[in-house]
Design brief:
Length: 185
Amino acid sequence: MSTAVLDLAAATPAPASRPVPAAARLILKASVGAVVLALLALVAGPKLYPFQSFYVRSGSMAPTIPVGSLVIATRTPADRLHVGDVIVFHRPDRPGTMVVHRIYSIDRTPAGPVFLTKGDANGSPDAWQVPATGQGWRAGYSLSRVGFVVGWLHVALSRRGWLGAFALLVAIWALIAIWQAEEPE
């Protein structure tokens, strides 16, 4: 009795690869381009335009402004800021640390007016006073979760420099070249 060996690989034809429709490729390219341009605007925009973006790293303003949000703020004279405005300022007891909190009250001191601030999630006002002089940052918008991406980009570009940005551009170029190579002839 003879046994026949069935070669399944030879018996079944390879599935035909379906080319990606031109409209889908165009939509994908446009989407990638829009995301890249938006991120560049948020990262480079503050150097060119009168706004600044701040990445929220704590939950003190939740749920109004959750962790990972990107706050877009504009310069505003201190005398135009009022109770209830969300401001971004240097924390007085930790130089270099930026805080996004709401103005809880405005007090008069011998040194001049000061803002008492409070995070929306906090039970009591902050222990510090923020001088209400000159210009400050008033939060205009917050974009949930966008701060994670922008924060990562700032870290990536500051630690790895332009090499990381160049590698990202090369990767995007390679993907576009691969997608264009799949076009039917």
